[in-house]
Amino acid sequence: MSKKISIAIDAMGGENAPNKTIEGIKFFLEKNINKDFTLNIFGKEDIINEKIRKYNIKSNLINIINSDTVVSDEETPMTAVKNSKNTSMWNCIKHQLDGKSDISLSAGNTGVLLVISRMILKMMNEVSKPALAGLWPNQNGMNVVLDLGANIECNDQNLIDFAELGSALFKSLFPKESAKVSLLNVGSEEIKGTEMLKAASKRLRDLSNEDNFIYNGYIEGNNIMSGKSNIIVTDGFTGNIALKTAEGTAKFITKNLKKSLTENLFTKISLLFSYFSLKKFQNKLDPRKYNGAIFLGLNGPVVKSHGGIDSIGFYHSIDLCYKIVKGDLMSQVRKNLHHSKSA
Amino acid sequence: MSKKISIAIDAMGGENAPNKTIEGIKFFLEKNINKDFTLNIFGKEDIINEKIRKYNIKSNLINIINSDTVVSDEETPMTAVKNSKNTSMWNCIKHQLDGKSDISLSAGNTGVLLVISRMILKMMNEVSKPALAGLWPNQNGMNVVLDLGANIECNDQNLIDFAELGSALFKSLFPKESAKVSLLNVGSEEIKGTEMLKAASKRLRDLSNEDNFIYNGYIEGNNIMSGKSNIIVTDGFTGNIALKTAEGTAKFITKNLKKSLTENLFTKISLLFSYFSLKKFQNKLDPRKYNGAIFLGLNGPVVKSHGGIDSIGFYHSIDLCYKIVKGDLMSQVRKNLHHSKSA
Fold first, then answer.
1. CB under 8 Å, gap of 24 or more: what pairs does A208-212 form?
2. Is the Cβ pair A272, B274 closer than 8 Å?
3. Among A279, A295, A311, where does a domain finish?
């Protein structure tokens, strides 16, 4: 493909914008050796230019587009549409609708981003509800987990759609691996769970084939990271609780580990010997590497970076956008939907 | 209180019974210095006596009660009642019903234990559904989390009951600490979550007072272990997923940490210096210390040990039974129910 990958970046969203967003852009420009992309940077032109100078960015791969206003963190989804027009976030999505960007990225207000993305890009006809997907490490590589909270209550059709969308995302990010779907449940036997889950499981079993995804049945919480499946499908309530619980557990353990490894002179000496191995360990689990939740089911992908992220984390979310477009997510989605809707 | 604490123990339940159960009993007899208890051991008398000799147990605090049969792992809750009569598990609960034991403990088939406990002991009149509660560490001490999977679908009344039962359990185990209840939700703001959660939250706010429990509002998954609240209330589906996800995450991290700390000569040397601190760290997170889920809402408490547990883990579940009775759980439950039913 010779077509350039075009990414719309809201430089003004998030707690540390625009310093961390612009520094993240700098890292991406340094690390991506392919140079087959354009970064469309949305925000107040004078501020953006000041930061570009501050971080000494010299590149012909960026394109600054002025937006005078910014979506406030206090804005609610109800008032978002009225108050968000021509903000940096709005202009990103509009740029994407006009075909000038392939994907949008913002670290701003999540609720507002979801509402205006849906309003501007519109839902795909074949999809019942949009979903919020995230990446999560497993023993063999990476999981796609969805829905992470866009839909608090779901029916079996929603879960089928999430399986299709999630495996399309997985295949665009990891084209060499096969997509293996599981439904998150309280047991692995067929009789476990709600009637809604049983109905979804039966239909996923019918749809399971090498072309779209292999359905592996139910998975329990303790096996999410086992690598048995790599697309974990659940409703937005359960997905949100599961992911946040995993985050909290990881934080609890690493905090206590750090305390143990610095509590006296001996443990501090031990750090000298294990420094590089512990760095590698920390690097593997670094949550900044998984920064970025992806809205799926709209006529184009939108990525939400964590609001409090630093520049390394923001770099990873730009890289995620690049990979999603490079892996041709939207074609994968259309192929998957074609399979299941004609089944 | 001069009355002896009497614990009914199913010695035949679980994958490693009766070796690990009897060795666990031995540890309890060695470690409990109060000696204000009787352990009623249910199982085949000749096998139990053989193990008692094997582990060199000499104590006048044990009482062996013969039961010729054992609940099979293949038994389903449907056929349990017909096939479980006079098994070691059944006889434990019957002993408790007859007032000869205060609490029952089994590492056997969970579904069967729940069904026969409910059938023999009966539900408390004031409680809508029984719950399965568990212990989980937090930054300041310990959480009680419930329901862990007894009830896949719940209404707001069930959640109110769980809050009452969970805080009674907490107060019986940790009499010096105050009971702080939170509802597990996808956000901390009042507008977040399902209508059912909003209704439960409103009623819990009305019931909040120093005498039974303080209601702290919603809690998100990443704050379960923060210590902000110590009784985490949720439906059985979400609770099961959250706890198992936390287990899986902890296992994933410790496995990768172990790999990092043994990967070369330097890291192995580092272990010499940090050995005792890492042992303390491991000890704090040792899942065997939290072994034992508690059935609440029946006319008497029943504890389920993990089926694959070793003798140290089984020891901890006997100790949990002892503490529950010592802390007078059933009086705490009645007091809490009185508060809220008369509110």
1. A208/A181, A209/A339, A210/A178, A211/A335, A211/A339, A212/A164, A212/A167, A212/A179, A212/A335, A212/A336, A212/A339, A212/A340
2. no
3. A295
